[in-house]
From TrEMBL:
Protein known as: Flagella basal body P-ring formation protein FlgA
UniProt keyword Signal present: yes
PANTHER family tied to this protein: FLAGELLA BASAL BODY P-RING FORMATION PROTEIN FLGA (PTHR36307:SF1)
Intracellular or extracellular location(s): Periplasm
Length: 234
């Protein structure tokens, strides 16, 4: 082989790997785009605030795949390990994408006891890795006033799966029935016949006339009647 031909052949050999890498990179970009769309929808469905995503692709051999290769979704149930396939000349080549998601979420600002109503002042927002915590909460108001089934350490991320509504009305305790009708609000003293959390319907007894009625808990020691009782006493 002549020196000139040898130089051209050597140059060709150098160009071939670069061409293959460029093709694989194009397909990887397509996979990453599809994966990012899935993760963004996932974060939006949960309501995470200002999510930041990092994606890492673990690929097989994508060399030789056409730039317009179709990307097929296999399994995206867990962002930490999503599976896709690039269709290369009729052959499926699997690609694993591992996502890391960070978002502004609620964490405890101090140690919290289980079963004790949580005050808003004991909570704060921080940016945390929430990839493995789909129950992470983004709004302090969603946590304040509730109780946790487990104790939490200062700095621990709050998981909504641990939370219970606090008991706002206690059995045999005094409550106020707040009845509203046509712009008029009437307060009636009553006794709770059951414990109740926000939104629960319980039985209460009118302290003035002994009438028992069903009412919905709307706040601490406060309920609203399911039906406006006749002859309500102010």
């Amino acid at each position: 082989m002549k020196p000139f031909e040898t130089s051209c052949y050597s140059l060709l050999l150098l160009l071939l790997p670069a061409s293959g890498a460029w093709s694989a990179s194009s397909v990887e970009s397509a996979v990453e785009r599809v994966a990012r769309e899935h993760v963004n929808r996932y974060a939006e469905s949960i309501g995470w605030a200002e999510p930041q995503l990092k994606l890492k692709l673990t690929t097989g051999n994508l060399g030789g795949c056409p730039d317009d290769a179709n990307i097929e979704t296999i399994d995206v149930r867990h962002p930490s390990r999503m599976r896709f396939a690039a269709i290369c000349n009729g052959e499926k080549r699997e690609v694993v994408v591992r996502a890391t998601i960070a978002a502004n979420v609620v964490v405890s600002a101090e140690d919290l006891k289980a079963g004790t109503p949580i005050d808003a002042s004991s909570l704060k927002l921080e940016r945390r890795d929430v990839t493995a915590t789909p129950g992470a909460v983004t709004n302090i108001d969603e946590v304040a006033g509730k109780t946790s089934r487990r104790a939490m350490r200062a700095g621990q991320l709050v998981d909504r799966r641990w939370l219970n509504e606090s008991v706002l009305v206690k059995r045999n305790g005094k409550v106020t029935i707040i009845a509203r009708n046509a712009g008029v609000e009437v307060h009636v003293a009553a006794e709770a016949l059951q414990n109740g959390r926000r939104g629960e319907v319980i039985s209460v007894k009118n302290s003035a006339n002994g009438t028992v009625l069903r009412a919905r808990v709307i706040g601490p020691d406060a309920v609203e009647p399911l039906e406006i009782p006749s002859g309500t006493t102010r």
